[in-house]
Design goal:
Elements (H helix, E strand, L loop, with lengths): L1 H34 L9 E7 L14 E6 L4 E17 L8 E19 L6 E22 L3 E5 L4 E17 L2 E16 L2 E5 L2 E5 L4 E18 L1
Antiparallel strand pairs: 1-2, 1-11, 2-3, 3-4, 4-5, 5-6, 5-7, 6-9, 7-8, 8-11, 9-10
C-alpha cells in the first residue's frame, strides 16, 4: 500500500512538473510573439528613406538617402546605404551670333555605405540600436563655357574621392507591423583626395595630376530622420 501511495505521488509530481514546464513554454512563446508583434522578423529585408538636414562643406559621411537592411538575426542587421545625386545649372543668354553665351555647371555624387547595426531589446514597439559603417564616395564636377566660336570645358576642378568610417546610434519606433519611423545620429571621420583635372579647349585635351588630399579627424555629426518598411 505504501509503495502504491509513493508511486501515485511520484506520478502526480511528474504531471505537475510537466504542466508547469508547458505553462512556462506557453508564456515564453506568448512573450516572444508580443515582442515580435510589430518588429521585423529574422530573415526579412527592409528599405529606409532618410532625411538629412543640409550641412555646410563636402559630402561628410552622408546619411544614406536610401538604405537597404537585411535582418540577419534578432540582434544583428546588415545594411548598405546609397547616396546618389546630380545637380546641374545652365545659364543661356538666348542671344544670336557673337553675343551668344552659355555656361553650365554639373556636380554628380555617388557613395555607398556598407555596415551593420546591433539592436537592443527595447519594448514591443521601440528598438534602439548602435552600429558602424564605411564610406566610399565619388564627387565629380564639370564646367562648360560656350560661345559661337569657342568651347571651354573643365572637368573635376572641385571633384574628389571620399573614404571614411563612422559609428551611429538611433532607434526605430514601429507604428505597425513592419512599418517604422526613426531617428539616427552618426559620428565619423573622413579623408578626401582631389581628382585629376581635365581641360578641353576647342578639341585639345590636357590633364593635370594632383596629389592634394585632406584628412578630417574632427568628428562629424550627421543627424537623420528616417522612415522604413519591411518586405
Amino acid at each position: 500500500m505504501k509503495k502504491l501511495f509513493l508511486g501515485v505521488a511520484a506520478l502526480l509530481s511528474a504531471l505537475s512538473m510537466n504542466a508547469q514546464a508547458e505553462e512556462n513554454t506557453a508564456v515564453e512563446t506568448k512573450e516572444a510573439k508580443e515582442v515580435n508583434q510589430y518588429k521585423v522578423d529574422e530573415g526579412k529585408f527592409m528599405m529606409e528613406i532618410g532625411y538629412v538636414p543640409a550641412t555646410a562643406g563636402s559630402v561628410n559621411l552622408p546619411g544614406g538617402m536610401l538604405r537597404g537592411v537585411y535582418v540577419l538575426s534578432e540582434k544583428i542587421e546588415l545594411k548598405m546605404g546609397l547616396n546618389v545625386g546630380i545637380v546641374k545649372d545652365v545659364q543661356d543668354n538666348a542671344k544670336a551670333g557673337d553675343e551668344w553665351v552659355k555656361n553650365s555647371e554639373r556636380t554628380a555624387t555617388f557613395a555607398i555605405e556598407p555596415g551593420f547595426n546591433y539592436c537592443f531589446e527595447g519594448t514591443n514597439r521601440l528598438e534602439p540600436y548602435i552600429g558602424a559603417e564605411l564610406l566610399f564616395g565619388i564627387t565629380s564636377t564639370k564646367e562648360v563655357h560656350e560661345t559661337q566660336n569657342q568651347k571651354h570645358v573643365v572637368k573635376n576642378e572641385t571633384g574628389f574621392n571620399s573614404f571614411g568610417v563612422a559609428g551611429n546610434a538611433g532607434f526605430n519606433f514601429f507604428v505597425a507591423k513592419n512599418l517604422f519611423i526613426g531617428a539616427e545620429v552618426k559620428l565619423g571621420v573622413e579623408m578626401t583626395t582631389d581628382k585629376k583635372i581635365t581641360t578641353e579647349e576647342n578639341g585639345t585635351t590636357t590633364k593635370e595630376d594632383t596629389n592634394n588630399h585632406e584628412v578630417e579627424f574632427a568628428p562629424v555629426a550627421v543627424p537623420a530622420i528616417r522612415i522604413g518598411w519591411a518586405f
